[in-house]
Design goal:
about 300 residues; 2 domains
């Protein structure tokens, strides 16, 4: 018999079914009703709109659908979207791994502040973040005199789009890795160091293999957001067709021009990329669920 939290337990007493908290006490019809409401909601809010995108895209036939992607301006939007993602995601990968390493493995002044900064893009509207870059690098911006002297174009150009995309996507990889690294602890790294490994060897042969699936998971989420970002990119791009319009911006322009077939065609391609990301994400969760579960702790 022992005491804990003002309660008395007798280890010799048999455990009765009433000792365990039941996961739910609702009747079966209530459970079925709640499940049905959830399914109907998901079908109405997510599945049905997604299906309608493809239906509208092919409404005028496959020929009209594929002709959209022969348009030079749509091709430029697709190329720019892939280019921005190809730049932003690797940079966020490097930053995310470095930030997660610092937060999870070390104690230092300002650690809580760094964690807050990592979460900042989740709290700030993407439109506001785009405006910040305009205030910094625009024609009346704080850094415009210096930029003008170097002949570097940032606002209404590709560098501004890349910067805005990096800002809104950089928490994804770091936020996937921090809980995973904290859960794994420092034991493996300390053991490798005690055996004579240097810092790079510890990272490549110990740390990276331990976080590889969580890292890939974060990269997928970061890439999906980078390709679909609209708000921040809309502010800094200037909507110059064929030069600074990504796929989301091209969809808006086509729709405003009442070119609905082309708008839904480009939207279907963007949705298809999102579906591929979702499928890969689901496969990772199914095959490596235990390891990825570490990223959901805390």
């Amino acid at each position: 018999m022992y005491e804990q939290d003002d309660l008395v337990y007798d280890s010799r007493r048999p455990i009765l079914p009433s000792d365990h908290t039941r996961p739910t006490t609702e009747r079966d019809w209530i459970k079925r009703t709640l499940i049905g409401i959830a399914i109907v909601f998901m079908l109405a809010v997510i599945v049905l709109p997604l299906v309608l995108v493809f239906v509208e895209a092919f409404r005028k036939g496959a020929g009209e659908y594929f002709s959209t992607f022969g348009d030079p301006q749509s091709q430029a939007a697709i190329r720019l979207t892939l280019l921005v993602a190809a730049i932003a995601v690797p940079l966020n990968l490097v930053f995310g791994v470095a930030a997660a390493w610092c937060v999870a493995k070390f104690e230092f002044p300002g650690k809580a502040f760094l964690t807050t900064l990592i979460d900042l893009p989740f709290s700030v509207s993407p439109v506001v973040s785009g405006m910040v870059y305009v205030l910094l690098f625009g024609a009346q911006g704080f850094l415009h005199p210096w930029i003008k002297g170097t002949n570097i174009e940032i606002i209404f150009a590709v560098p501004g789009i890349v910067l805005a995309t990096i800002f809104v996507t950089f928490p994804f990889i770091a936020r996937e890795l921090i809980p995973l690294m904290q859960d794994q602890g420092n034991g493996d790294e300390e053991a490798a160091l005690s055996l004579g490994a240097n810092g790079w060897q510890v990272f490549w042969r110990v740390t990276l293999p331990n976080i590889k699936w969580g890292l890939l998971y974060g990269v997928l989420l970061c890439n999906a957001r980078a390709m679909g970002e609209f708000g921040a990119v809309s502010v800094v791009s200037g909507h110059i067709r064929g030069k600074t319009t990504t796929m989301p911006l091209d969809i808006e322009i086509l729709y405003n021009e009442y070119n609905f077939a082309a708008a839904f065609a480009v939207a279907s391609l963007l949705a298809l990329l999102a579906l591929v990301t979702l499928i890969v994400k689901t496969i990772l969760e199914f095959r490596y669920g235990d390891e990825l579960a570490g990223t959901r702790k805390h």
